Amino acid sequence: MIVFLILVYNSCNFENMQNTQILINSVKEIVAAGDEQKLEECVKALKQIDSIELTAIKIMHVTSRILAEIEELKKTSEEVKQSIEQSRTKMEESKKRLQEVRIIRRNKQEYSQLVNVIEENPSRVETNRRIHELQDELVQLQERQKQLEQKLSERRAQLQSFNAVLMVFQKFITEDEQPESEERDSNSPDSSEENGATPRRSSAVPE
């Protein structure tokens, strides 16, 4: 549209210049001839020239304004391009910073996890100390086990001896009770009646 107006302006200027030149030449010829009728035509021609010049001036102003607007639009377009380029650059920088922040955050998480693992697991010195303590405790438990096994063996031997003594004692009691049982049987009333004799009190003292 702007290019079209410029072309129209240029064509109008060219035509106006040609028309103006023709009118000027005609006025010169009429003045030289001294014809009044033609002088009136000259006046009309001059008015026409003024109208053409006024139109040309208006077109020139419009064209100047259009050209100024074109320059302003070019300037604005350049500023917009620069702004877009700056925004694009800032976006790229923001993406890079965001990526760096993500990497830093991931490193912090990994570091925190590593710290937790280190805190949960004892140090080498602490581990060695604990191993020595467990070894000492194991030695003590083994010694304690030996002592308990020795005491258990002694208790078993004592129990076997006690069982042997108990068996001998039971044997003695059994042998001691047998004569008394036989004597009671012989002194019972039933046995006296069967033998036809009166029972007698035994004066024997059991051993």
UniProtKB/TrEMBL annotation:
Coiled coil spans: 67-158
GO cellular component, one term: THO complex part of transcription export complex
A biological process from GO: mRNA processing
Main location (coarse class): nucleus
Cellular localisation: Nucleus
Residues covered by region (Disordered): 173-207
Pfam family, one: THOC7
This protein's name: Uncharacterized protein
